Amino acid sequence: MLDFNAVVPSIPYILKGIGVTLQIVLGATIMGMVLGILLALCKIGKVTVLRIIADFYTSIFRGTPLVLQLMIIYYAIPQLFDINIDPMPAAILAFGLNSGAYISEIIRGGINAVDKGQQEASLALGIPYAKMMKDIILPQAMKNIMPALMNEFITLNKESAIVTVIGALDIMRRAYVVGGSNYHYLEALMIAGVIYYIMTLILTFLGKKLEKRMSRSD
Amino acid sequence: MIKVENLHKSFGKNEVLKGISTVIKEKEVIAIIGPSGSGKSTFLRCINLLEEPTNGVITIGKDIVTDKRTNIMKVRENVGMVFQHFYLFPHKTVLENITYAPRNVQGISKTEANAKADELLRQVGLYEKRDAYPNRLSGGQKQRVAIARALAMNPSVMLFDEPTSALDPEMVKEVLAVMKSLADSGMTMIIVTHEMNFAREVADRILFLDGGQLVEDTPPAQFFTEPKSARAKEFLEKVL
Ligand SMILES: Nc1ncnc2c1ncn2[C@@H]1O[C@H](COP(=O)(O)OP(=O)(O)O)[C@@H](O)[C@H]1O
Ligand SMILES: [Mg+2]
């Protein structure tokens, strides 16, 4: 039978995982965005070597399981470089590198969807490539891809639960610990589920608001 | 002065410009006319190197545009271009559209760039739209802003590629009026257009392109009454 009373005292402990989860997701998103933009620029650029590297990077990170990437970073870095890496930085690194690959594809698509005339008009005005990208093309691309980026962000928020395998104390891990301490796994996991679900709803809501704000020039 | 010598342009195996030569003097207004696909846009786009010529030499003032050592970005600052579909920056206001390049390419101060933009907006009759986004403008208004944006760089030549072809008929006039007054002010202009009356009235010379060749280069009075070539005659019969 369900007995939520057994886990209620542990709810604050599980809630603390929200901070950990958000830290991982935010860190990874920032890293993923920077990386994603750089990779996207490599992919659309004229330098063949950079294009091949960026495509190869993307295919590796999209073609292997995220949990594998996470474990390789967590276990292989200490083994190879003889330094210890804590679960949190390892998680941020893994998720950042991974979402960089996905985000770069989203951004590439967004850039390609911007009317070619925007580039022509920029060139005709003598605007240098870097400025054109930064001030003319990317802002328009960003607007097109906000929904896809928000989606990636929400997916990341949910998928971050797998950091539990390297012992980072996120929502998922804490729920698991609580469940293990009193054998009410189901109740603890359900509470974790509710927390993830509410976070998703909030992020979706914020994303919609952001999209609205960005489309004020439509 | 713009000098075009033996200009060739191919896209793959498709030779679009087959050796075009002409000289355009300062303050001259040139209308380029010809059937669709004859290479008018390509010719125009070669002048500011939006397309790279396959062969030939283009000189603008002292700059040999087709010379690899020439800084093409500098040349483009000096050559304004207006497109059929305007290509305003949709995420920038009218004022920002006009001041972006002067401020970020020429390094002009915000105050100075804004003052110049306001002056240009008055000139094209759109001062009250300075803080609007392009999506709030009609096609004719967008094109007038695009003209102001190009003029803000103080170009010595203006290129127009069918500037009124995407406009509803009632908006064509307002754009042509702006172009006419620009011509009257002494701007050197090269205009690809299907507006025959405008070409007849405003242009100093008509360049008639057909199949990638410059078939005729005559003053409008002659071109529209007694064209030299059979091809121009045929074309005029269709459009007039
Ligand atoms: N970027 C391009 N790539 C391949 N072919 C092109 C390109 N631009 C123009 N062309 C071809 O060149 C020819 C002339 O085009 P264009 O200069 O646009 O003609 P016009 O402006 O007189 O209608 C057309 O056959 C067109 O298909
Ligand atoms: Mg054309």
Automatic annotation (TrEMBL), chain A:
Topology within the bilayer: Multi-pass membrane protein
Source organism superkingdom: Bacteria
Transmembrane portions of the chain: 20-42, 54-77, 183-206
Pfam families: BPD_transp_1
Native species: Psychrobacillus lasiicapitis
Record's subcellular location: Cell membrane
Parts forming coiled coils: none
The name this protein goes by in its record: Amino acid ABC transporter permease
